[in-house]
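SAMPLE LOG
Freezer: B-3
Tube label: C17
Construct: single chain, 581 aa
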Amino acid sequence: MRFRFAVAAICLAVILGTDRADAQTPTITIEPATTHQTIEGLGGFGPAKVWWSAGPWHDQGYIDFIVKDMGTSMLRTQIYWDGEESNDDNDPDHFEWAGFDFSPTSANGKQFAFIRDLKAAGMDRLIASVWTPPIWMKLNPDDSLASFCRGQCGGRLNPAHREEFAEYLAAYVVKLKEETGLEPYALSIQNELLFATPFESCVYTAAEYAETLKVVGARFEREGFTTKLFGPEHMGDFGWNERSGLLSEILDDPEASRHLGVFAVHKYINGVTPDYGNAEGWAQFQARMKGAGKPLWMTETSDYSSSGWARAFETGRSLHLALKHGHVSAWVYWYYADVVVVDNGPTPLSHVFKSYYRFVRPGDVMIDARADDADLLVTAFRADDRLTVVVINNGTTSKSAQIDVLGSDEPERFELYRTTEADGFVTLGPASNPVELPAQSISTLVAVSAAGPVDAGTGPDAAGANGDPDGGPSPDGGPSPDGGPSPDAGPAAPAPAAGDGPLSGGPGVVRGHCRCVATISARRSAGTALGGVVILGALAIARGVGRRRSGSGSGSGSSTGSGSSTGPGSSTGSGSSTGPG
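STRUCTURE (predicted):
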């Protein structure tokens, strides 16, 4: 059975004239019976002000905006290293609490008030990432990378301290739950692990990461935590993940795989330049995760080289590709502060995110959706009480598209919400069918019952089990309009869907992090090898890093890789970076 507002279509044809009625109307087909991943959360990073600035870092207006208005359902934060500045008691199986500092003035403890308020507002899916272990646990940190480093930058976790590191993370989980009533939904033992950076960082080989994962996972099991482990949070280039051994060392090792709850990537090319993604690359990840029985998350991306609607719309297309072809169950942007949210109010990015975040909720299941027009990028999601369809018109002309919902569960009608450059996010009320889709717009249609509009949902929702019964992304009825090759090396992936071809960020793209600025050169300059992976000609300049011991400083460092197994293939570029990622 098809959802067609025949009367509305006829009336529209009369109004617009015979020529318009005879023209071919694109069709969007929704198949609720064909299901894919279960959504776990959509969101971003952190408070209203960056953690290394002076407080206060949030207020109720910020909480209300990101949770109740925008619809954030997952939020990421950083686990700082200095909660244990020296070994608490040399016994990793015993918490000597006097040796830990999670007080309200500590780097971790100052976050607890924010997390409590998030929980009170209904946002209870906190994920937390480590940038560096406590510095006394590390070998060979590189203080030349920046003047404030003092053991925080580069280096490796001493294998002899893996149990101590697991104890530190367990102590963090215990104290967070005691102070906020919230246990982390998930925790990452290392952010962007394959290269050193001029901010907090630590380098692991794939084998070292897998061994550390086993130790931390076993400790969490003994503690009885519900917190799942996610990672490795490396770049979202399939070939790089494969060549570095991350896929095989983690997913093909039964013990390591058992302890990793979620495989997570970041959408950058080289740790700096954003990678907006493409259908082929995401499909490779999706197929590999399906074989391993793992959900896939994207836990950081950003673009500081552009602004306004151009950045927002490009980011919306990137989110679509990850959901559609990667079947990601969580997608999390970098810092909200001053980019997504300004003065507790909207920006073009927040409008785009709201088109998805407010309506696609934890527990929703992505279902098959396709359009026979290459300009229309479609995803659809169902829950017990609603059906949500998000359509990006990637074209330069307005289109009127027919919506067909196959099967017996046809909705009474759709409520229409639209995001455009001119108007931002607007509520338009009941949708006609065909529905008008302006050029370069995002339209969100939420099915409602005869009883009235279905609540879009901005509070806590129980997530269902992750599942992805199909073998890959559904074809959208045509070839990619962009014939460019995928930058991802690896096994052949299913053909991209119509309208979902490669979308890639160019070189020279900037990413905002800890107010450090790193300029990455496309040239491989001579320097010190760090784990065989490269930061290409990195020069970092600290700008007012309030949380750092030194407050500010500058420094430089560089390294070169050793062969094609260490980098993202030919995807190198030049650009600048602002802070840790």
